[in-house]
């Protein structure tokens, strides 16, 4: 029985990885072994940093809310505690957007919390 090698699938796998490595510097873009390692590492970074991105945005929202609250004489923790007790259910993303782009609406929320 002759030897059977699935070259079509092998080539497709390699083409897929080399396509992902497009734009990399030097041999990372066109040498299979180097490109495979570079793409694997890039995928690990992408997975890790999708999580990090969420943390970064949350901290940015907190900074913006804090700045908006302090303009009205409250700290961030007082403001968030007041929101809970006043049963105002707005998330940090929305509050940060209000504090940045609609200060009068944010001021109305702060007055309600006070």
CATH fold assignment? c-terminal domain of poly(a) binding protein
Total strands: the figure is 0
SS class: mainly alpha
Largest sheet: none
Shape field: rod-shaped
Number of domains: 1
Mean pLDDT value:
96
CATH second-level architecture: Orthogonal Bundle
Description of the molecule:
- With 114 residues, the protein is mostly helical.
- The protein has a single domain (25-113), classed as Ribosomal protein L20, C-terminal domain (c-terminal domain of poly(a) binding protein).
- Helices cover 75% and strands 0% of the residues.
- Helix 1 packs parallel to helix 2, helix 2 (32-71) crosses helix 4 (92-101) and helix 4 (92-101) crosses helix 5.
- The mean pLDDT is 96.
Sum up the structure in keywords.
75% helix, mainly alpha, 5 helices, c-terminal domain of poly(a) binding protein, 114 residues
Concise structural overview:
This protein has 114 residues and is mainly α. Helix content is 75%, strand content 0%. The chain has one domain: c-terminal domain of poly(a) binding protein.
Task: Give the secondary structure arrangement, pairings included.
Blueprint: H1 7-20, H2 32-71, H3 76-85, H4 92-101, H5 103-113
Helix pairs in contact: 1-2, 2-4, 4-5
